[in-house]
What we know:
The chain is an alpha/beta fold.
Amino acid sequence: xxxxxxxxxxxxxxxxxxxxxxxxxxxxxxxxxxxxxxxxxxxxxxxxxxxxxxxxxxxxxxxxxxxxxxxxxxxxxxxxxxxxxxxxxxxxxxxxxxxxxxxxxxxxxxxxxxxxxxxxxxxxxxxxxxxxxxxxxxxxxxxxxxxxxxxxxxxxxxxxxxxxxxxxxxxxxxxxxxxxxxxxxxxxxxxxxxxxxxxxxxxxxxxxxxxxxxxxxxxxxxxxxxxxxxxxxxxxxxxxxxxxxxxxxxxxxxxxxxxx
Length: 260
Ligand SMILES: Nc1ncnc2c1ncn2[C@@H]1O[C@H](COP(=O)(O)OP(=O)(O)OP(=O)(O)O)[C@@H](O)[C@H]1O
Ligand SMILES: [Mg+2]
């Protein structure tokens, strides 16, 4: 199956069930190549499930997910697609450098990548420290570094900046921008709306549906807001008001839905 050369990811009619939850019934969208696409939405709306579907680790009940011209999860994609999960997935009793060397060997990335990615995530000074001795923000940067090994064409990053201070967040966004400038496609989820403004494209989800597929400017223009938090809340409220199955009676209820 070939997708449009303009798209890194094409999702058609995606149906995913997790346990008793129908997470998606029929989801359609594209992710353009070479851009940074932000995936935003209240907790539980399906961001992680969508990312898992893109990297091919999610069992799907129907529909198709095409990634870099092949069905999601094929062996050929393992080196071309990197996934940084929401929970850190590195070894606590190994040092940063040992973790990176280990994962570089597994994916066949050049050994020289190890020092490069450690520098890029700003952990040069801690390379010989065990992961267990790092702060939460440092630990999450180690798994981000793992995702950057081997220069993947598509990076799927699930809340990579959670728990990081604004300076570090800005530095990591410079790294993402650099990767995208070098041709990589990045899909990144976040709860921090100022990060939405750093993306090229934005997919806003609520309750397993895409409620906006837009750009940062489009989000602000469409809602008439200057603040991304207010813009997002306004879209959520609009969607809540329009959904037949659930009509919150108060603005507070809508805010709660938006995870405020
Ligand atoms: N293993 C599971 N069994 C049953 N339901 C699940 C399972 N994993 C996730 N879900 C449900 O699927 C829905 C989507 O979850 P998902 O983790 O994709 O949300 P999310 O948008 O990533 O949330 P967050 O912002 O909190 O990370 C939620 O309703 C969640 O409760
Ligand atoms: Mg999640």
